[in-house]
Design brief:
Blueprint lengths: L2 E7 L5 H14 L4 E5 L7 H4 L10 H6 L10 E2 L7 E4 L15 H11 L5 E5 L7 H9 L2 E7 L2 H16 L6 E7 L6 H8 L5 E4 L4 H7 L12 H16 L1
Parallel strand pairs: 1-5, 1-6, 2-4, 2-5, 6-7, 7-8
Antiparallel strand pairs: 3-4
Helix pairs in contact: 1-9, 4-5
Length: 242
Amino acid sequence: MSKIIAIWGKSGSGISTTAVNLAVALSESGKLVTLMSTNLQHGDIQIFLNQTIPPDKGTHMALADDTGHPEGFLTPAIKINENLFIMAVPNQTETIFTDQLFQDKIVDLYQNLSMYADYLILDISDDINNALSMVGLTAADQIFTIYRCSQKSVLWYKSMHSLMVRARFDEKIMPVLSLSEIGVLPEDFIKATSIEFQMDIPNIDEAYIVKDTGEPIYLNRSKRNKDFISAIDQMKGLVMKS
């Protein structure tokens, strides 16, 4: 059964960038990895990997299926390696409303997907009304929560903290500080939130441009990516160790 790892945080904090590159790092280590996005409005993570999810594959089809074999709706990331598979909505699709989803159906999807790979990496939408996200956070063995040093992230943390405690997410959360040359100073952010960070990761300010190249940062060993790759390797070590 897979170990389920969730990457969560406020939108714009680098959640998808982190999830994609962690999945790539684990798959490059020889582990079988499923990378799943809980975004039900549009496909996104496949763009990072230069892949296309056809209409007969992806999350919508897996949720509608009753065979108990969602692995049939995965898309192999063949342009990366043979160990990485993607579950997300197709590149061209219609929006699905999450209030139409039954929780038992989502639980079954996660349980069945977790039988297929060594690791199930979840790119969690920050919409707490998204049932796929909330069940994913509940099912996760470990949650890396990314905090970018900004006033918006301070407000997001304060609004989410009680939920984290009530749902006992805080017992499995590993806070990660996303460092940037702009925004709130790290020491001011820590003072405002009182979060004890386990690690930090450089914020990629041009992530939206890098995404469109279809080459994960982890596989681009240029000097400017060194610190980010080191942080992903540190996260990979924490995932494989625990």
